[in-house]
Structures are given as C-alpha cells and as structure tokens.
Amino acid sequence: MADTKDNKETKITKDSTIEKLATMSFADMEAKKKLDDKAKNSKEALKLVRCQISCNNKNKTSYSGEIFSARNAVIDEVKKFIPFNVPTHVPQILLNMIKEKQVQMFKKEKLANGTVITRSFLAPEYNIQILPPLTPAEFEAIKQKQLAEGRNN
After folding, report:
1. pLDDT tens digit string along 44-73?
2. What is the DSSP letter of 74?
3. Does pTM top 0.90 for this prediction?
4. Residues 6+ apart with CB under 8 A from 55
C-alpha cells in the first residue's frame, strides 16, 4: 500500500517537473543554465585552499604579508591580506593570480673574453606550498585556542 503512495508522489513530482519544462522557453532554459554555471564557477573560485606562501622578491623582504585582490566577470572583487611564511587559507581565485605573478631578477655572467654582464630573467614572485586540509582534531584545537583567547568570530 505504501509503495503505491510513493509511486503517486514521484509521479506527481515528475509531472510537475515536466509541466515546468514544458512552459519554459529556450531563452529561459539558457538563462537557468547560465545561472547554474555562474553559481558553480563562483563556488569553485571562492573555495579556500590551505597553503603557505613565501615571497621571492628581494624588494619585499621586510613585508610580513601582502594584500591581494582579484575579480572577474562572475565574481565581484575578492580582497585579502595574506601573510608570508604562515599556513593560511586562501581563496582559489587569489591563489591562481598569485601563481601567475613574476618578478624580474638579475644575474651576472662572465663572457668568454672576460667581461662581466648583467642579464635579466623572470622568476616566480611567490613560492606556494599547498598543504593538506585541516583534520577535525586540528580544527577543534584551533577552535578551542581561539575561544580561550576570547575570539569567537
């Protein structure tokens, strides 16, 4: 008896889904698909990745970190201060931007005739070490530490 009731309910939901699809135009379906893709891309770009970033730029040796910001057609501006040489969580969109940054460096070379020249080359500005996600035990320890310090946000 319960099986027939479940079958009726699934038939009703299938019928209502078919009715909705029948009343949608192709433009509505395309708009819905674009919204779904936009939401998926937005979620993927804002996903937090645990990593440790160090800077290779000699002009930034005294910096403890840097403010990075990025945006695209799908996502509004994402801005965050990222400390150097400290494990932290960074949004994927910022991590992609940081991976692309380069710095111009110079090296001295000695030619066959004995003259020394300076050549420039591009090198990655940041070293990125991707770390494994926090375990539940690590997460709980951090939570307890922050509660003990009086930080509850």
Report:
1. 888 999 999 999 999 999 999 999 999 988
2. S
3. no
4. 61, 63, 66, 84, 125, 126, 127
